[in-house]
Amino acid sequence: MAIQHDPKNQLAYFNKGNLYFANHRYEDAEKMYTKAIELKPLDTFSYINRALSKVMLKDYDGAFKDLDKCIKIDPNSAQAYSNKGYLYQLLGNDPLLHFTAQSLILIE
Asked: Does residue 54 register a pLDDT over 90?
């Protein structure tokens, strides 16, 4: 309803993405987060959530790109580093997990 009322409402797309994600509709969630990013390209939360959607879709390269973009926007994003570490762990890449964890410690 909010999107129909205001098609440039970035938060409406973000929230719709959250609803899709909660209902395991990851492709739809990814599309909503992409639209939210188009409307507000510096919103790190949209990149993080899109990355999580991509993880659920097994698009790991895409998830890394989103997390890297988030870190580029906000180098102090503990959530981006944490999710990146989780992704390295998921893929069994322990040396990079250690490096990411060290980056997270430096932020805190």
From this structure: yes
CB 33 within 8 A of CB 43: no
Residue 102 in this model has a pLDDT that exceeds 60:
no
Q: Which two tokens stand for residue 45?
A: 């939360």
- Name the burial class of residue 50, with classes exposed (0-12), middle (13-18) and buried (19+) by CB atoms within 10 angstroms of its CB: buried
Region 51-71: what's the mean pLDDT? 97
Write down all domains in the chain, each with its CATH number in brackets.
8-107 (1.25.40.10)
CB 9 within 8 A of CB 2: yes
